[in-house]
Amino acid sequence: MKPNKHGIVLKLLIVSGFATINTSALATSIINNSSQPVTISNGLVTEGATSTIQPGNSFDIPSTWGDSQHLYARILANNTPICVTQYGVSKLPTTENQQVTTELECTSYNGPTPTPTPTPSPTPVPTPSPSGVRIYGNGTWIYDAQFLDGPDGAAYTKAGLWSPNLNSYNIGARTSSKITQFFTYGGDLEMYCRGSGEADLSEACTSKNMLVNYYPPSFYNTSLTLAKLGDSGYSSSAQYKLSADKVNSGTNAKVQIIPIVDGRLDNPASSDYLSAMNRMTQSEAQLLADNVARIYCADNSVSGVQFDLEPFDFSKSGQQYFYTQIAKDFAGQNKDSKGNDKFNCKNEDHPDGRSFSVFTFPSKVNQNLVQSLNSYNNGYVIYSLYDLPDNAPVGPVNSPANYYNLVLQEVNKAINSGAYFQLGIPAAASVHEYESLNGKVTGYKQLDYVKAAIKAINDSGVRANPRFLGVAVWGWSKYMSYPPHSTNVYSPSHPPSDVLQYLQQNM
Fold this sequence. Notes:
Shape: globular
Strand content: 15-25%
Radius of gyration: 24 Å
Organism: Aquella oligotrophica
CATH superfamily of the largest domain: Glycosidases
Protein name: GH18 domain-containing protein
Strand order of the largest sheet: 12-15-18-19-20-21-22-25
Number of strands: 27
Helix content: 10-25%
Keywords: Signal
Number of helices: 10
């Protein structure tokens, strides 16, 4: 570690061996040998509880503040961050002891450790009431689009494309490894108002210019016909539900259909159909959420909706208003003048309403979002454990060993976030975890990444966390290309047989 001008001592326990790591044994003591108090909090979260370490005292960092090689802390002296790395916090190795001398320089240290200051209690998050819609289960992303002219050609959808594969997987899987949540592609949102869709910034958003593309035709551009597009998101939901129910006696898996609603809020003006979501007024955002609820709750096969609207940013008022209203609508709490659920989200088949989830990284989650997700006990987060680290540029491939440590760090962030969550793993190629790119082989197998992810999940202890809702498997598609609809093709595009066999017994 680079010497620092402030006075603390860092004692770190030595741990060795990738295969024999026990994260519960990790401990890092920070000793304050300066003449002034220092404060410390969890470096993996932005709103963690803080402890003050007086001169001559020490503090033991919990193992959940990092991974097998490093622990992360936010340390301040006189309200100024100290021992800061490129990560913006202190990154403390588990291989050496450190101290800050009376000259306020960090050096190696082998001396005794004072009695530690008690670990700070985390900021309390109200425990949500039990909910029948936010249940444990493993899920998977499913895309029925075919590209008859190659990955950069037009997409044509065939509903139920991957049904035989998923049913076969469930027949051979142990009970805890079955995939019981199908994230079928359920269409997108399009806005032709507030500057999106070539509309003027002053054009207000209405039901006519905010579109939810689940049922056909529902397209602003009437030239997009079923003959060109193939089956709709509704068709995919119906086909997967029908197919899974038919083989239920053989799979013993009661499958939930949870359509994905996707969209980009950061496209260039020439292809922008959703950036207005960040600029919506409260009434406009509530109207869009009501339209979504009206569309998806009309399909009784739908148990919930997953929102993959990127970049996810709950600090944007439009997104806050939208997701807060979704929680209310999906819980069946948006009533008409007679006290009835306006959108039939809550009915005999769905007595607790429908669930909703957002796809993002733990770093994007704050307590305002957690409160919104818990407001009706029906919201959760799907955390990405692929394309790591968060915000990394497209290009470098992760080694499985490095990927293990990145996953462990993300899982610990997830545990500390306070939200209910699933964890998404790369059973198929992602842009940082893949076997080949345009035919050029990396030397790594997708199975290596899956084994590393499952090991990190198991080592973290997250399976005992009451807010952990299961594993989400990426993913099933004809091509995995990035940028989308390009000839830049990553492989494999769906889980290979060895990955499926491993997950059947280990997920």
